[in-house]
Amino acid sequence: MPELPEMENYRLLLNPRISGLPITSMEVTREKSINMPVEQFQRQLAGASVLTVERRAKHLLFRLNSSKVLILHLMLGGMMFYGSAAEKPERTVQVTISWGDRHLFFIGLRLGYLHLHDAAEAEKLLRRLGPEPLESGFTIDRFAALIQRNRGTLKTTLVDQSVIAGIGNCYSDEICFEAGLLPSRRCHQLADGEIERLYRSMRHVLAEATRYGGYMEMPLFAGDALTGGYDSRCKVYDREGEPCVRCGRPLARQDVSGKKSFCCLHCQS
Fold this sequence. Notes:
Structural class: alpha+beta
Order of helices and strands: HEHEEEEEEEHHHHHEE
Radius of gyration: 20 Å
Helix content: 25-40%
CATH architecture of the largest domain: Orthogonal Bundle
Largest sheet: 4 strands, antiparallel
Strand content: 15-25%
Distance between the termini: 27 Å
């Protein structure tokens, strides 16, 4: 599932390509992916332009000059591709937004969605989300307060979008490994030094993953050499049985509160 770095990478790459351009057409092949009848959706998008693409947690927000907001959540298996019809990958497309002969294909939205809202509605829907982990105002003190009052495991706490926004299965494991902490540790039992390590690891891992285009390897457009560049840099996620980069022992998979998790049982404690 795309997480903060993947969606931030999409935001950075899409803004210079679609901002300010009027939408010429759009097509919906799966009505359940949107939140209104197709004809109404098409009518409200026709001729509108995207002022800017923003990100909130794992969502992309396409802010339109009509004051409407398209909210995208790719969920499990979702992705996007921008380009011509000839360049489009052989995947099932649920929604297509077009700017002349250039199209933004929304792929794999079986669980995800692309919903159109008024600005006030969008703000209300996103209000339940926790703070952004890379914002300058999200200090170590704020982070520690959130962690110390939580009695769950690190795994379940880090992926809880109402606690901290944008982290999922992949980066929760990478953050814990960087901090030398097991994902199964209980938050309220962490020492001050461990919380500080966790905070710094979170900021470092998410920033580095964004810089390398996230871990999802499907390019956003033809010639995209950035997207997916972090996949080879993941140290534990989905690497069960591979040698740990720190100690050489085999990495393990442990289910923590029903969520799959990868770690080194020797380097993390």
